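To the team - thymidine-5'-diphosphate complex, inputs and output below.
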Amino acid sequence: MPISTPNLIYSGKAKDIFETDDPTVLRAYFRDSATAFNAQKKGEIHDKGKINATISALLFQLCEKNGIKTHFVKQSSDRELLVKRVNIIPIEVIVRNIAAGSLCKRLAIKEGKVLKEPIVEFSYKNDELGDPLLTRAYIKIALEITDDKTLDEITNLTLKANEIFKEFFLKVGIKVVDFKLEYGFDKDNDLLLADELSPDNFRFWDAKTNEKLDKDRFRQDLGNVESAYQEVLKRVKEEAKNILS
Ligand code: TYD
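Output:
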């Protein structure tokens, strides 16, 4: 009998996406591979796939519990999530609470400056172009990606998610510095939060020491990358137990 080969439909920088028997559901397999600086730096973080799949599963459930619709269906193994199939909107939605990364470079602002309110910004999900920053006019008129209504909806959902994450992580002694979200439309044209929620796409700092607990440890060769990811997982699991039951 032929062994059915899983149908790989997309291989990203850290995840492989497979079709399942249900055409509306995909399987996201989280690898240990890590990239930074638009994939110029490549490496592996031991057990990252398992850690990120589990953190993502818990944070997607936290969003759902608070009324944010997501593509999450269930965690089907230690490094796999079943997710609803969506058409990803090719925009990276970034929220910033504290200055770090490209904001500091672009505007010569010191890392760690607490912003007086959260900033939401959009960049074009396009590696060849290096994910350039977008204005609304670029999105609507130049690229014709989407309209004001969807952008408003995305902005509101993202600010809401930011409040949920900040409150959740404060309880476990972590500051949510910034993060990147992706959204997509499912077959019913519902807007769903998609992709992943993990130290790969969030900056997390320990609230007491400001120690970095995210991919900046890999980007900046700070060492102890896996243990930082494990620490985030441990704290997320502890708090999730209290909230998601
Ligand atoms: P940003 O400071 O814009 O870029 P960089 O990480 O290159 O310094 O990143 C803001 C947040 O968004 C940070 O938590 C990392 C995340 N992010 C991604 O996950 N993927 C991306 O492609 C980009 C540009 C950012």
